[in-house]
Amino acid sequence: MHNVVLLAAPDSALAQALAVRNLPDIHLQVYAPAAVPEEVLAEAEVIVGAPDHIVPLVRGAQRLRWVQSTWAGVTPLLQNGEPPYQLTALKAVFGDVMSEYVLGWLLALERRVLVHSRSKRWLTGRESSVRGKRMGIMGTGSIGTVVAQRANAFGIECVGLNRDGRTVSGFERCYATSDRLSFATGLDYLVGLMPHTPDTDALVDAVLLAQLAPTAIFINAGRANAVSHGDLVSALEDGRLRAAVLDVLPDEPLSSSDPLWSVENLHITSHTAAPTADAMIVDVFADNYQRYVSGQPLAHLVDFARGY
């Protein structure tokens, strides 16, 4: 039997969904993160949970061999170098919901949906369209690829930014992060879906923003470290950027007194871009558990050297 500890409320939908999967040779124990008994932790072979909940527990998990994150991001678990266990992230499940978020906002802004819905008078003027626009997506992994494919269906041309400029399906062209300014030149839309690593710090700064088309829209739903927020606010206030949508911020939840709330044409969406359904977590874990017990390589392994 394999000792698996799920960090969740015992009566949660996630715990119930995993229990009914009837995975082979599994001894599943469910505890709230702060309530795992020392003796249970000492015998845990696998831990499933949010990275920030797992960090305080790994020292006491002497037999730990595998951690399955319930988040796409795993930054809290990367702080102390490569550990003796395998770490897998929650991937290949967020593409559809992220596409809804990105395209929903672009359509709303281009078609002035919010302006019309809030107006108390009849508005005239021609609405613009997303068709024929050029979108740059920073991050060409499983999420960015699906966003590009969905955007292509709307007639949006997509280019990508990744670590080495490798070609990825769905993108007309991909650029290396070292060539970020060429990537940004003339973009109508810039979408941030980058992981949090030292190499992605402040990729979106005043220099990059200056390369965008004069009426560009910026959406960041990746990680907050990729953006110089002071430069972003300046671009909005100077009219060099039409609008920005931020789903992720350096400090969350963002204080109600933070001046970002009052920046004109800046929309903050409180880390809601890609909601995680319990079924997604269970499906990813169940697939990897079958791989684990049969000795196959795990899917979505995190490379600690790269940080994702």
Describe the structure.
- With 308 residues, the chain is α/β, with parallel strands linked by helices.
- It folds into two domains: 2-92 and 276-293, NAD(P)-binding Rossmann-like Domain (Rossmann fold), CATH 3.40.50; 95-268, NAD(P)-binding Rossmann-like Domain (Rossmann fold, 3-Layer(aba) Sandwich).
- It has ten helices and twelve strands.
- The strands form two sheets. The protein has a seven-stranded parallel beta sheet with strand order 8-7-6-9-10-11-12, sandwiched between helices.
- Strand 6, helix 6 and strand 7 form a beta-alpha-beta unit.
- Helix 1 (13-19) packs parallel to helix 10 and helix 4 (95-110) packs across helix 6 (142-153).
Q: What is the topology?
A:
Layout: E1 2-7, H1 13-19, E2 26-31, H2 38-43, E3 46-49, H3 51-54, E4 66-69, E5 86-88, H4 95-110, H5 113-118, E6 134-138, H6 142-153, E7 157-162, E8 173-176, H7 180-184, E9 189-192, H8 206-209, E10 217-220, H9 229-237, E11 243-246, E12 266-268, H10 278-293
Parallel strand pairs: 1-2, 1-3, 3-4, 4-5, 6-7, 6-9, 7-8, 9-10, 10-11, 11-12
InterPro entries: D-isomer_DH_NAD-bd, NAD(P)-bd_dom_sf
Domain D-isomer specific 2-hydroxyacid dehydrogenase NAD-binding: 117-273
Organism: Parahalioglobus pacificus
